[in-house]
Protein backbone atom coordinates (compact mmCIF):
# COMPACT_ATOMS: atom_id res chain seq x y z
CA UNK A 1 0.00 0.00 0.00
CA UNK A 2 1.10 3.55 -0.70
CA UNK A 3 0.25 6.54 1.50
CA UNK A 4 -0.40 9.48 -0.79
CA UNK A 5 -0.38 12.93 0.80
CA UNK A 6 -1.96 16.09 -0.61
CA UNK A 7 -3.62 14.09 -3.36
CA UNK A 8 -5.01 16.58 -5.84
CA UNK A 9 -3.64 14.40 -8.63
CA UNK A 10 -5.64 11.36 -7.56
CA UNK A 11 -7.39 10.94 -10.92
CA UNK A 12 -4.06 10.73 -12.73
CA UNK A 13 -2.46 8.30 -10.27
CA UNK A 14 -5.57 6.08 -10.45
CA UNK A 15 -5.62 6.14 -14.25
CA UNK A 16 -1.93 5.29 -14.60
CA UNK A 17 -2.15 2.56 -11.96
CA UNK A 18 -5.16 0.92 -13.64
CA UNK A 19 -3.68 1.14 -17.13
CA UNK A 20 -0.03 0.27 -16.52
CA UNK A 21 0.47 -1.10 -13.02
CA UNK A 22 -2.78 -2.79 -11.89
CA UNK A 23 -0.99 -5.32 -9.66
CA UNK A 24 1.62 -2.95 -8.27
CA UNK A 25 -0.07 -1.38 -5.26
CA UNK A 26 -3.14 0.05 -3.64
CA UNK A 27 -3.10 3.77 -2.88
CA UNK A 28 -4.50 5.42 0.24
CA UNK A 29 -5.28 9.04 -0.52
CA UNK A 30 -5.12 11.84 2.04
CA UNK A 31 -6.07 15.44 1.37
CA UNK A 32 -3.47 16.99 3.66
CA UNK A 33 0.31 17.27 3.78
CA UNK A 34 2.62 14.82 5.53
CA UNK A 35 3.94 16.28 8.78
CA UNK A 36 4.93 15.17 12.25
CA UNK A 37 1.27 15.39 13.17
CA UNK A 38 -0.09 13.35 10.25
CA UNK A 39 2.73 10.79 9.95
CA UNK A 40 1.00 8.12 12.14
CA UNK A 41 -1.59 7.74 9.35
CA UNK A 42 1.11 6.17 7.18
CA UNK A 43 1.21 3.10 9.44
CA UNK A 44 0.55 -0.09 7.52
CA UNK A 45 1.84 1.32 4.22
CA UNK A 46 5.04 0.30 2.39
CA UNK A 47 5.71 3.63 0.70
CA UNK A 48 4.71 7.26 0.98
CA UNK A 49 4.06 9.41 -2.03
CA UNK A 50 4.59 13.11 -1.38
CA UNK A 51 4.84 16.56 -2.93
CA UNK A 52 7.06 19.52 -2.36
CA UNK A 53 5.12 20.84 0.61
CA UNK A 54 5.23 17.70 2.70
CA UNK A 55 7.61 17.58 5.64
CA UNK A 56 10.38 15.00 5.33
CA UNK A 57 12.73 16.10 8.05
CA UNK A 58 14.71 13.79 10.31
CA UNK A 59 11.84 13.18 12.73
CA UNK A 60 9.26 12.39 10.07
CA UNK A 61 11.68 10.06 8.27
CA UNK A 62 12.50 8.21 11.51
CA UNK A 63 8.81 7.82 12.27
CA UNK A 64 8.13 6.52 8.75
CA UNK A 65 10.96 4.03 9.07
CA UNK A 66 9.62 2.84 12.43
CA UNK A 67 6.23 2.20 10.75
CA UNK A 68 7.94 -0.01 8.17
CA UNK A 69 7.94 2.43 5.23
CA UNK A 70 10.62 1.50 2.72
CA UNK A 71 10.24 4.03 -0.07
CA UNK A 72 9.67 7.77 -0.42
CA UNK A 73 8.23 8.66 -3.80
CA UNK A 74 8.51 12.37 -4.55
CA UNK A 75 5.98 13.64 -7.07
CA UNK A 76 8.25 16.65 -7.66
CA UNK A 77 11.69 17.47 -9.00
CA UNK A 78 13.18 19.33 -6.01
CA UNK A 79 14.29 17.34 -2.98
CA UNK A 80 15.73 20.14 -0.85
CA UNK A 81 12.96 19.42 1.69
CA UNK A 82 14.11 15.81 2.26
CA UNK A 83 16.73 15.08 4.93
CA UNK A 84 18.74 12.86 2.62
CA UNK A 85 21.42 11.86 5.18
CA UNK A 86 18.73 10.39 7.42
CA UNK A 87 17.03 8.66 4.49
CA UNK A 88 20.35 7.10 3.52
CA UNK A 89 21.18 6.09 7.09
CA UNK A 90 17.78 4.38 7.38
CA UNK A 91 18.08 2.72 3.98
CA UNK A 92 14.95 4.44 2.64
CA UNK A 93 14.62 4.39 -1.15
CA UNK A 94 14.03 7.96 -2.36
CA UNK A 95 12.97 8.71 -5.94
CA UNK A 96 11.93 11.98 -7.56
CA UNK A 97 10.40 13.00 -10.88
CA UNK A 98 13.41 14.80 -12.36
CA UNK A 99 11.66 16.39 -15.32
CA UNK A 100 8.02 16.88 -16.07
CA UNK A 101 6.60 19.49 -18.34
CA UNK A 102 9.21 22.21 -17.82
CA UNK A 103 6.97 24.22 -20.17
CA UNK A 104 4.20 24.22 -17.54
CA UNK A 105 6.38 26.14 -15.07
CA UNK A 106 8.03 28.34 -17.72
CA UNK A 107 4.65 29.34 -19.17
CA UNK A 108 3.42 30.16 -15.68
CA UNK A 109 6.43 32.40 -15.01
CA UNK A 110 5.72 34.29 -18.23
CA UNK A 111 2.01 34.51 -17.36
CA UNK A 112 2.86 36.04 -13.96
CA UNK A 113 5.19 38.56 -15.58
CA UNK A 114 2.59 39.52 -18.14
CA UNK A 115 -0.02 39.93 -15.41
CA UNK A 116 2.28 42.33 -13.59
CA UNK A 117 3.31 44.08 -16.80
CA UNK A 118 -0.30 44.71 -17.87
CA UNK A 119 -1.88 44.88 -14.37
CA UNK A 120 -4.57 42.38 -15.36
CA UNK A 121 -5.01 41.32 -11.71
CA UNK A 122 -6.14 44.84 -10.90
CA UNK A 123 -8.33 45.12 -14.01
CA UNK A 124 -10.03 41.85 -13.04
CA UNK A 125 -10.91 43.17 -9.60
CA UNK A 126 -12.16 46.47 -11.00
CA UNK A 127 -14.41 44.98 -13.67
CA UNK A 128 -15.94 42.60 -11.12
CA UNK A 129 -17.09 45.76 -9.34
CA UNK A 130 -18.50 47.13 -12.60
CA UNK A 131 -15.62 49.56 -13.06
CA UNK A 132 -14.16 49.80 -16.58
CA UNK A 133 -11.83 52.69 -15.79
CA UNK A 134 -8.26 52.02 -16.99
CA UNK A 135 -6.63 54.85 -15.07
CA UNK A 136 -3.59 53.56 -13.18
CA UNK A 137 -3.38 50.44 -15.36
CA UNK A 138 -0.76 51.74 -17.80
CA UNK A 139 1.43 48.75 -18.70
CA UNK A 140 4.73 47.86 -20.29
CA UNK A 141 5.24 46.08 -23.61
CA UNK A 142 7.32 42.94 -23.18
CA UNK A 143 8.70 43.07 -26.73
CA UNK A 144 12.17 44.65 -26.73
CA UNK A 145 12.74 44.29 -22.98
CA UNK A 146 15.87 42.69 -21.53
CA UNK A 147 15.04 39.54 -19.57
CA UNK A 148 17.49 37.87 -17.19
CA UNK A 149 17.18 34.18 -16.45
CA UNK A 150 19.00 32.83 -13.43
CA UNK A 151 19.48 29.10 -14.02
CA UNK A 152 19.11 27.87 -17.60
CA UNK A 153 18.29 24.23 -16.96
CA UNK A 154 15.11 22.61 -18.24
CA UNK A 155 12.66 25.28 -17.03
CA UNK A 156 15.00 28.24 -17.60
CA UNK A 157 15.55 27.13 -21.20
CA UNK A 158 11.83 26.66 -21.79
CA UNK A 159 11.32 30.22 -20.47
CA UNK A 160 14.14 31.49 -22.73
CA UNK A 161 12.38 30.01 -25.78
CA UNK A 162 9.14 31.82 -24.90
CA UNK A 163 10.79 35.19 -24.13
CA UNK A 164 12.76 34.88 -27.36
CA UNK A 165 9.46 34.48 -29.21
CA UNK A 166 8.19 37.67 -27.55
CA UNK A 167 11.13 39.55 -29.03
CA UNK A 168 13.03 40.08 -25.78
CA UNK A 169 16.79 40.45 -25.43
CA UNK A 170 18.00 37.62 -23.20
CA UNK A 171 20.77 37.39 -20.63
CA UNK A 172 21.35 34.41 -18.36
CA UNK A 173 23.46 33.58 -15.37
CA UNK A 174 24.28 29.92 -14.69
CA UNK A 175 27.74 28.73 -13.59
CA UNK A 176 27.01 25.28 -15.07
CA UNK A 177 25.16 26.32 -18.23
CA UNK A 178 25.32 24.09 -21.28
CA UNK A 179 25.59 25.39 -24.85
CA UNK A 180 21.88 25.45 -25.57
CA UNK A 181 21.13 28.90 -24.14
CA UNK A 182 23.55 30.62 -26.53
CA UNK A 183 21.04 30.38 -29.39
CA UNK A 184 18.74 32.73 -27.43
CA UNK A 185 21.10 35.15 -25.68
CA UNK A 186 24.29 35.81 -23.74
CA UNK A 187 25.63 34.24 -20.55
CA UNK A 188 26.80 36.88 -18.09
CA UNK A 189 27.78 37.20 -14.42
CA UNK A 190 25.08 37.83 -11.85
CA UNK A 191 25.87 41.53 -11.43
CA UNK A 192 25.63 42.29 -15.15
CA UNK A 193 22.33 40.43 -15.32
CA UNK A 194 20.88 42.34 -12.37
CA UNK A 195 22.04 45.71 -13.65
CA UNK A 196 20.82 45.29 -17.22
CA UNK A 197 17.54 43.42 -17.01
CA UNK A 198 14.00 44.83 -16.88
CA UNK A 199 12.78 41.41 -15.76
CA UNK A 200 14.59 38.82 -13.65
CA UNK A 201 13.24 35.26 -13.54
CA UNK A 202 14.62 32.68 -11.10
CA UNK A 203 15.01 29.11 -12.32
CA UNK A 204 17.94 27.72 -10.30
CA UNK A 205 17.61 25.14 -7.51
CA UNK A 206 17.70 26.05 -3.82
CA UNK A 207 21.05 24.97 -2.36
CA UNK A 208 23.34 26.30 0.38
CA UNK A 209 24.98 28.57 -2.20
CA UNK A 210 21.75 29.91 -3.74
CA UNK A 211 19.85 30.52 -0.47
CA UNK A 212 18.90 34.22 -0.34
CA UNK A 213 20.57 34.81 -3.71
CA UNK A 214 18.24 37.80 -3.86
CA UNK A 215 19.09 39.76 -0.75
CA UNK A 216 19.64 43.36 0.37
CA UNK A 217 22.99 43.52 -1.41
CA UNK A 218 21.88 42.04 -4.75
CA UNK A 219 18.65 44.06 -4.66
CA UNK A 220 20.70 47.25 -4.33
CA UNK A 221 22.35 46.37 -7.64
CA UNK A 222 19.19 45.44 -9.52
CA UNK A 223 18.03 47.79 -12.30
CA UNK A 224 15.61 50.22 -10.60
CA UNK A 225 11.97 49.45 -11.36
CA UNK A 226 12.62 45.91 -12.62
CA UNK A 227 10.24 42.99 -12.12
CA UNK A 228 11.31 39.91 -10.18
CA UNK A 229 9.59 36.55 -10.61
CA UNK A 230 10.28 33.41 -8.63
CA UNK A 231 8.73 30.11 -9.68
CA UNK A 232 11.67 28.09 -8.33
CA UNK A 233 11.96 27.93 -4.53
CA UNK A 234 10.97 30.50 -1.90
CA UNK A 235 14.31 30.34 -0.10
CA UNK A 236 16.10 31.93 -3.07
CA UNK A 237 14.71 35.28 -1.92
CA UNK A 238 15.21 37.10 1.36
CA UNK A 239 11.58 38.16 1.67
CA UNK A 240 12.20 40.93 4.19
CA UNK A 241 14.78 42.53 1.90
CA UNK A 242 12.37 42.31 -1.00
CA UNK A 243 9.65 44.13 0.98
CA UNK A 244 12.13 46.94 1.61
CA UNK A 245 13.04 47.07 -2.12
CA UNK A 246 9.34 47.30 -3.02
CA UNK A 247 8.85 50.12 -0.50
CA UNK A 248 11.79 52.04 -1.95
CA UNK A 249 10.47 51.33 -5.50
CA UNK A 250 13.81 49.72 -6.30
CA UNK A 251 11.66 46.80 -7.49
CA UNK A 252 8.83 47.62 -9.89
CA UNK A 253 6.94 44.41 -9.18
CA UNK A 254 7.22 40.97 -7.66
CA UNK A 255 5.59 37.69 -8.65
CA UNK A 256 5.99 34.64 -6.45
CA UNK A 257 4.72 31.16 -7.12
CA UNK A 258 6.87 29.98 -4.23
CA UNK A 259 7.14 31.61 -0.85
CA UNK A 260 9.81 31.23 1.83
CA UNK A 261 7.41 30.03 4.51
CA UNK A 262 5.00 28.11 2.27
CA UNK A 263 5.69 24.83 4.08
CA UNK A 264 4.20 26.23 7.28
CA UNK A 265 1.15 27.54 5.44
CA UNK A 266 0.56 24.11 3.93
CA UNK A 267 0.86 22.57 7.36
CA UNK A 268 -1.79 24.98 8.60
CA UNK A 269 -4.29 23.94 5.98
CA UNK A 270 -4.60 20.55 7.69
CA UNK A 271 -4.70 21.81 11.26
CA UNK A 272 -7.35 24.37 10.28
CA UNK A 273 -5.54 27.17 12.09
CA UNK A 274 -5.99 30.65 10.68
CA UNK A 275 -2.89 31.55 8.77
CA UNK A 276 -1.04 34.26 10.60
CA UNK A 277 1.93 35.32 8.55
CA UNK A 278 2.94 38.92 8.99
CA UNK A 279 5.42 38.94 6.15
CA UNK A 280 2.88 37.55 3.70
CA UNK A 281 0.31 40.10 4.83
CA UNK A 282 2.85 42.91 4.36
CA UNK A 283 3.63 41.67 0.87
CA UNK A 284 -0.05 41.57 0.00
CA UNK A 285 -0.41 45.29 0.73
CA UNK A 286 1.48 46.11 -2.52
CA UNK A 287 -0.57 46.40 -5.73
CA UNK A 288 2.44 45.26 -7.73
CA UNK A 289 2.86 41.96 -5.89
CA UNK A 290 1.30 38.75 -7.11
CA UNK A 291 1.51 35.57 -5.05
CA UNK A 292 0.36 32.05 -5.87
CA UNK A 293 0.53 28.89 -3.77
CA UNK A 294 3.02 26.86 -5.83
CA UNK A 295 0.94 25.98 -8.87
CA UNK A 296 3.48 26.38 -11.67
CA UNK A 297 3.59 22.62 -12.26
CA UNK A 298 -0.18 22.24 -11.91
CA UNK A 299 -1.40 21.37 -15.40
CA UNK A 300 -3.21 18.25 -16.57
CA UNK A 301 -0.29 17.33 -18.81
CA UNK A 302 2.30 17.67 -16.03
CA UNK A 303 0.18 15.66 -13.54
CA UNK A 304 -0.15 12.84 -16.05
CA UNK A 305 3.61 12.74 -16.54
CA UNK A 306 4.22 12.91 -12.79
CA UNK A 307 1.87 9.96 -12.16
CA UNK A 308 3.59 7.84 -14.83
CA UNK A 309 7.10 8.48 -13.54
CA UNK A 310 6.12 8.10 -9.87
CA UNK A 311 4.49 4.69 -10.31
CA UNK A 312 7.33 3.72 -12.66
CA UNK A 313 9.75 4.55 -9.83
CA UNK A 314 7.79 2.29 -7.48
CA UNK A 315 7.81 -0.59 -9.94
CA UNK A 316 11.62 -0.30 -10.22
P1 LIG B 1 17.44 21.97 -13.72
O1 LIG B 1 18.31 21.18 -12.80
O2 LIG B 1 17.15 21.44 -15.09
O3 LIG B 1 18.06 23.44 -13.91
C1 LIG B 1 18.58 24.20 -12.87
C2 LIG B 1 19.69 25.07 -13.44
O4 LIG B 1 20.14 25.94 -12.41
C3 LIG B 1 20.91 24.26 -13.93
O5 LIG B 1 21.24 24.63 -15.25
C4 LIG B 1 22.01 24.65 -12.94
O6 LIG B 1 23.28 24.70 -13.55
C5 LIG B 1 21.55 26.05 -12.53
N1 LIG B 1 22.19 26.55 -11.33
C6 LIG B 1 22.69 25.85 -10.28
N2 LIG B 1 23.25 26.69 -9.38
C7 LIG B 1 23.10 27.94 -9.87
C8 LIG B 1 23.48 29.23 -9.42
N3 LIG B 1 24.14 29.39 -8.27
N4 LIG B 1 23.17 30.29 -10.17
C9 LIG B 1 22.52 30.15 -11.35
N5 LIG B 1 22.14 28.95 -11.85
C10 LIG B 1 22.43 27.86 -11.11
O7 LIG B 1 16.09 22.24 -12.93
P2 LIG B 1 14.67 22.64 -13.55
O8 LIG B 1 13.89 21.40 -13.86
O9 LIG B 1 14.83 23.66 -14.60
O10 LIG B 1 13.99 23.30 -12.28
C11 LIG B 1 14.45 24.52 -11.73
C12 LIG B 1 13.82 24.73 -10.38
O11 LIG B 1 12.41 24.98 -10.56
C13 LIG B 1 13.85 23.47 -9.49
O12 LIG B 1 15.01 23.46 -8.71
C14 LIG B 1 12.63 23.61 -8.62
O13 LIG B 1 13.03 24.22 -7.41
C15 LIG B 1 11.72 24.58 -9.39
N6 LIG B 1 10.44 23.99 -9.78
C16 LIG B 1 9.30 24.68 -9.48
C17 LIG B 1 8.05 24.20 -9.84
C18 LIG B 1 6.77 24.96 -9.55
O14 LIG B 1 5.69 24.36 -9.56
N7 LIG B 1 6.82 26.25 -9.30
C19 LIG B 1 7.98 22.95 -10.51
C20 LIG B 1 9.17 22.27 -10.82
C21 LIG B 1 10.40 22.79 -10.44
TrEMBL record:
GO terms for molecular function: D-lactate dehydrogenase (NAD+) activity; NAD binding. Keywords: NAD, Oxidoreductase. PROSITE patterns: D_2_HYDROXYACID_DH_1 (PS00065), D_2_HYDROXYACID_DH_2 (PS00670). The keyword NAD applies. The keyword Oxidoreductase applies. Pfam families: 2-Hacid_dh (PF00389), 2-Hacid_dh_C (PF02826). InterPro entries: D-isomer_2_OHA_DH_cat_dom (IPR006139), D-isomer_DH_CS (IPR029753), D-isomer_DH_CS1 (IPR029752), D-isomer_DH_NAD-bd (IPR006140), D-LDH-like (IPR058205), NAD(P)-bd_dom_sf (IPR036291). Residues 111-296 form the D-isomer specific 2-hydroxyacid dehydrogenase NAD-binding domain. CDD domains: LDH_like_2. Residues 1-316 form the D-isomer specific 2-hydroxyacid dehydrogenase catalytic domain. Belongs to the D-isomer specific 2-hydroxyacid dehydrogenase family. This is D-lactate dehydrogenase. It comes from Penicillium nalgiovense. The lineage of its organism: Eukaryota, Fungi, Dikarya, Ascomycota, Pezizomycotina.
Amino acid sequence: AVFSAKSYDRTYLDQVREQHFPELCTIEYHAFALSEETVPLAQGCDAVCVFVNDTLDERVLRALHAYGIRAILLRCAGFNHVHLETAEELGLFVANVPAYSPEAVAEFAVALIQTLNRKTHRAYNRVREGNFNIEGLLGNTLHGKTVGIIGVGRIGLAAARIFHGFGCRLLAHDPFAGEEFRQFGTLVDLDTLLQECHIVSLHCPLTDSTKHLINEETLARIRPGSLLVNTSRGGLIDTTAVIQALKMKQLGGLALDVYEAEGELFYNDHSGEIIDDDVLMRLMTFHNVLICGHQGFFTREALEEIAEVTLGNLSD
